[in-house]
Hints:
The structure is a homodimer.
Chain A: H1 3-7, H2 10-21, E1 25-28, H3 32-38, H4 42-53, E2 59-62, H5 64-68, H6 71-87, E3 91-98, H7 102-113, E4 123-126, H8 136-139, E5 146-152, H9 159-162, H10 172-184, E6 193-197, E7 214-216, H11 226-233, E8 239-243, H12 245-248, H13 254-267
Parallel strand pairs in A: 1-2, 1-8, 2-3, 3-4, 4-5, 5-6, 6-7, 7-8
Helix pairs in contact in A: 4-6, 4-13
Amino acid sequence: MTAGSDRATFGKRLQDATVAxxxxxxxxxxxxxxxxxxxxxxEEFAATFVDAFAGRVSIVKPQVAFFEAHGARGYVLLEWVxxxxxxxxxxxxxxxxxxxxxxxxxxxxxxxxxxxxxxxSDAVTVSPYLGFGSLEPALARGPEHGVFVLASTSNPExxxxxxATDPNGRRLSQLIVDECAAVNAGADxxxxxxxxLGATVAEAPDLSQLKGPILMPGVGAQGAGPxxxxxxxxxxxxVLPAVSRDILKAGPDIARLRAAAEKFNEDFAFLx
Amino acid sequence: MTAGSDRATFGKRLQDATVAxxxxxxxxxxxxxxxxxxxxxxEEFAATFVDAFAGRVSIVKPQVAFFEAHGARGYVLLEWVxxxxxxxxxxxxxxxxxxxxxxxxxxxxxxxxxxxxxxxSDAVTVSPYLGFGSLEPALARGPEHGVFVLASTSNPExxxxxxATDPNGRRLSQLIVDECAAVNAGADxxxxxxxxLGATVAEAPDLSQLKGPILMPGVGAQGAGPxxxxxxxxxxxxVLPAVSRDILKAGPDIARLRAAAEKFNEDFAFLx
Lengths: 272, 272
């Protein structure tokens, strides 16, 4: 990654990357059943993933939990994975779903977005239970950094919280989209504050004013295809179908992994 | 820690600990201004904290973000801190505020509560934006493990989310308390599913049915004293005033650190 591209906004870098490589965000989920299926330990699995995708897809999403489950050893590996992918020009979205307040949230922002941090990524997912404003220390890092806020998820337990309503009767899923839209409003092109929106949610918020990236987990094995994604967000910029297990199941053969990602990028080429 | 005490429920171990050492949960927050005030690096700061409090207070709360900000190096140190404190018999509550779904949430539960995990703690804080049910992989670890769910926080941005209402007009802060109460209902004595409740919240949920621990940040420098804690939760079991900077500012002198924690335990002795 050149110094020049580092200074561009995350929204701009993401748009350039998806034009070059397609919209699919490849999930790096080294969970135990996959390690067993590949017949590999954590380190070899991650190295194979990097071999397969570094420089070849627009953006990858390491699932931090699967590294954290291995403690400091997992973090040593995650540092290497993030750095190797970013050096290849592939964007890294750390799926950490962090959320806290004040100086504690600032410490998370430093970990995942800070210059010089060993975990520095291009973007991070965050969780807003402590209020959208609590995320300010991450947003304050500026539009060179991507922040994806949980809005509406596909798991059956999600609506219990995400469909609760504010004093105006607005659902929290919509409130989060509106807050992100307000931050993106002044952006030149695609903004850098995105949302996480499950690709199989039954009732989606209105995304027409968001002007930011939309990460859509739930594509592939978990159920959604191009039709579902088109219905939720067709015509909007920055839509990133997140596919993990339906690509990773093609491994550990590198050519087959690349072919699986290419196939998904072709299926979702209408998004560009 | 003996094998016997490991098999007791977290609620029972917590009650025994607070009878022996008082109710105060000492926060381990190695943020930069404190490191500067103590004139120490991260490692020496953490070692001094362990020297001061291991075996001398009931429970400590490492703030994971301040370790994560140092990447893998921070996690190496956090593993040591957790293990040293637990070996001394002091309970460790990892303040991680993790939250995800399915196998990803299960990986976080493995990281912080799993037998054999290098980060295994006695309890962990979790965030419920993905629905209370999404936390099941942590709760399913059983009552030998403590889980503290964010309910209502003192930061001004919190009510935007936490006071949103479900279809019955119930606030999310109350909904979370009710969900925790349902899990604790069958417990013999204090349950193991707690909440996080800011000590300076203006409008607290009804806690009368919770039967679980109540972690109360916001005591000391941030504003609440014994009167505020008594008003919110007086007479309830398992109330843990969380104090960090008002104790840590007494450091790095070990005798002064211990005296500061003892003073807070005396001020809150009415909780036992």
